[in-house]
Amino acid sequence: MHIVCCVKQVPDTTQVKIDPETNTLIRSGVESICNPYDLVAAEVAVQLTERYGGKVTVISMGPPQAESALRECLALGAKEAILLSDRAFAGADTLATSYTLSQTISRIAAVNPVHLVICGKQAIDGDTAQTGPGIATRLGYSQFTYVSEVVSVDVENNTIKVKREIEGGSELIEGTLPALLTVELGLGIPRYASLPELARALRQDIEVWGAGEIGALPERLGLRGSPTSVHRIFAPPVREGGRVFDSTENTERAIEDFVEVFFEKESPLLEHLLSQDKG
Fold first, then answer.
1. DSSP state of 36
2. Which among 131, 157, 159, 155 is positioned nearest to 145, based on CA atoms?
3. Which of 5, 146, 225, 259 is 20 to 30 A from 275 in CA distance terms?
4. Which residues contact 267 (CB under 8 A, 6 or more apart)?
């Protein structure tokens, strides 16, 4: 079984840098980490190959520094890694990103058929949860989102059964391969890499592909291929904490203060409710 895992490097800071001209994140030179959801996806992919056999290929679109995220996944047990790095990819929204990744997966599948694509549910820098479904739609793969358990995979019969989270509960669904999964954080805990795997991850060559290698149309990449228009990006203002009623020394006094403040703040609502009762 061949699994492709899509990972993203995200800023590891609350003070992100913004390009004032393009209103996009400046990623070069910013301390970054592998997106936590994607690390879980990589761990799940490796576990599935340990269970059913096969290999994991990890791919990431980003600047050269994104190589570190790929090496982290190699240390978990992935066998191959590809970095998509090209100025033409810069500034991509989820539509252009899903196009770039789907083109890459199509090229990989032409050489070695892909049975599963696994992505994190979302990236912590955008929280859109759109890229995974966009890839599945472009590739025509079965799509399973918010997956909390992979119950079974049957490569011979091209079927997969998963448990996914829905509002108010969960459901078991079965579909055909190839398929794309977007996974929840609770699906797995990334393992501690062994020393041999760490050494292999540091030594292994990582292929770097640009727009030409994946046969992408220039007008569908990066800013040119992104219909999303960002009007403004800003950090939300710091919110002050609410009033604290300390009951450490005098519990009764704290309760009295709370009741006094509560009735003072909610008096208009209480008067309205009382007037309705009298009416």
1. H
2. 131
3. 259
4. none
**Does residue 216 surpass a pLDDT of 80?**
yes
For the ranges 63-67, 95-99, 269-273, 275-279, the lowest mean pLDDT is seen at: 275-279
What's the token pair of residue 176?
């055909």
Neighbours of 95 (CB within 10 A): 17
Strand partners, 251: none
Which of 167, 125, 129 shows the shortest CA–CA distance to 34? 125
Domain boundaries, the chain: 2-220, 240-279
CATH superfamily, with its number, for domain 2-220 = HUPs (3.40.50.620)
Q: How far apart are CA 143 and CA 152, in angstroms?
A: 15
Residues in CB range of 175: below 8 A, 6 or more apart: 142, 144, 159, 160
Backbone angles phi, psi at 130, to 5 degrees: -105, -25
Query: In one letter, which amino acid is 265?
Result: K
Which of 177-181, 230-234, 251-255 tops mean pLDDT?
A: 177-181
What tokens appear for 103 in the block?
């083109």
Half-sphere exposure of 188 (CA within 13 A, CB side): 24
Mean confidence (pLDDT) of the chain: 88
DSSP state of 206: -
65, HSE (Cβ side, Cα atoms, 13 Å): 12
Q: Which amino acid is present at 35?
A: N
> What phi, psi does 107 have (nearest 5°)?
-65, -40
Single-letter residue type at 256: E
Distances (CA, A) of 223 to 22, 99, 229, 241: 9, 13, 10, 40
What pLDDT is attached to residue 235?
A: 62
Tokens 């996944």 label which residue?
A: 73
Residue bearing tokens 């789907």: 102
Which residues sit opposite 2 in a β-bridge?
A: 55
